[in-house]
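agent: user wants the structure for GNAT family N-acetyltransferase from Penicillium malachiteum. delegating to structure tool.
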Amino acid sequence: MLIQIDDLSTSDIRSLLAFHVADLQQKSPSESCYVLDITSLQKPEVTVYAARDNDQLLGCAALKELSPTTGEIKSMRTAPEHLRKGVARTLLQHLIIQARERKYEKLYLETGVDEAFSQARTLYLKSGFEYCGPYGGYVARGPNCFMKFEL
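agent: tool returned. relaying tokens verbatim.
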């Protein structure tokens, strides 16, 4: 598996991210759905990484800079045909390494609280994330789960 910065120009990653947005909008109430669309993922403060095996897209994840000392994980998604193969765990570890290289002190994320998000929460907890309150302008106004990782 090779993980590299992606410019979001290929159809496979654009399709995966469109699926990601549609899936989260279906699972989350609009007032608590903070998924980023392609345009938002192309902003300078966001770096998107793609995991590939040869030319096959396995998954993606983004690291958003909130401040010079804090980052946020966004758009973690494994391609459906590659679930349960360690793609998400590998992408998460890559983001943690990138955050350390950027000298971040904390890494945050927001996810859902219902059963559809339970495997993601388990992955984050096993990786050292802890529950926390809203951060970076988020407001707890729905079924959201906020987590942080002390670097």
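agent: one observation worth passing along. The first strand starts at residue 2 and ends at 5.
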